[in-house]
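Recap from last week: sequence in, structure out.
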Amino acid sequence: MTEQTHDRLLIIDFGSQVTQLIARRLRELNVYCEIHPYQNVTEAFLREMAPRAVILSGGPDSVTREGSPRAPDALFTMGVPVLGICYGQQVMMQQLGGAVTGGKISGGGGTAEFGRAFVTPASPLDLVEGWFADGREQVWMSHGDHVSQLAPGFEVYGTSPNAPYAITADTSRHFYAVQFHPEVHHTPKGAKLYENFVKLAGFTGDWTMGAYREQAIQAIRDQVGDKQVICGLSGGVDSSVAAVLIHEAIGDQLTCVFVDHGLLRKNEADEVVAMFRDNYNIPLIHADEADLFLGELEGQSDPETKRKIIGRLFIDVFQKYADQVEGAEFLAQGTLYPDVIESVSFSGGPSVTIKSHHNVGGLPEKMGLKLVEPLRELFKDEVRALGRELGLPASFIGRHPFPGPGLAIRCPGEITRPKLDILREADAVYIDQIRKHGLYDEIWQAFVAILPVRTVGVMGDGRTYDYACALRAVTSVDGMTADYYPFTHDFLGETATRIINEVPGINRVTYDITSKPPGTIEWE
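Predicted structure tokens:
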């Protein structure tokens, strides 16, 4: 738990896949919040954190099962507002003297409810002020069990066809509970509900990037003192913002190591070096090891093998150059809050994790360095806001995500220098098209993949036998789910013509219209 001067809101995580969305909604309201797994939240933890309010998340378990997750009883005697969401509502009822009936999934006879539903009001309630202008409100339900008896002091304020206690509250104790999920976009006025809750709890919205910048700089100085720090710089948003923030805090005590594995986009290495070494005057080691990486990747076509080779070599190269920095005691990384949450959950938390590969701390302990992670409390959109606060160019702040293995996972099959050269040129044309049409900021991620097949074509009076490529562009909020971007046929036709005319080695262009799930954003 980080030392904070802001009012704090605690989110107790019971394992819902959308718990992070609750935090995002609150951060959008300039409210500082932290997510902690229910088993970590003890009475002592509550006393130490002293939250101004608490939200109980949803979760996959059933409160009717013996040994299922609970909130600490001390929570309900602290005198702070509490909001229960779905499973969180059921926990409140069960612990405060009400009753929950199991649905078919948990072996009971209750009614389940999944998907869109409509809630109608029973009585006015401050929590849902601004709702029900049309007499009912759309919400998103996802529950097998349901509350069958209210705890003493609670009253009904809203109902749905299959949830007679859709909105409940004990207003004297500022306890609120809803059966639906206000954090998802399928509950259109969910953000208003959270806004009302934090207002009822007395939050002033003092969580800003300006305030965070000052606090983070002081924290870095306190942690590092007069010691040297090494930062692994990729040129992406996270590591770039971390580097500039740390440099502002400790100046030349920071040295960045930029590992160039030969799998970057066109001109990317030069842009990163110019940005940090020339514009910011940050000490930078440009580790050009393309020959090493491409040499070991030669002849390899299995995606997992390629990833492991790149990961192993990256660590070896980084350590070799880091050893050149005399007196280095700290390693800086651009770890973000979602990585922290997923790592905590994976190491024992309740969440049914989608990603299990995060290793917060990243590089092995054998380096003997202590970690500096100044972004570990921030979501991606907050990192971009901090970047703007620090004066980073918009071109860097708004960059699409780029994977660590680089173009290797956009080159299915064997990786060769000629294929990488073709891929770089095609990708540059594609991104140029997207920018020319003013679409770059609407898209979460866009790139070209070169396919491991050659196709026959006709160019001029001759036949060709060249590579096919696939264009990929998706919209997303956090990268966990994604939809393909609906380009017009005119755009796709114009882009395909440019690629075929301007990029020798490609004679066929396709567009990938797979969403995630079932596909992934990257090709490997």
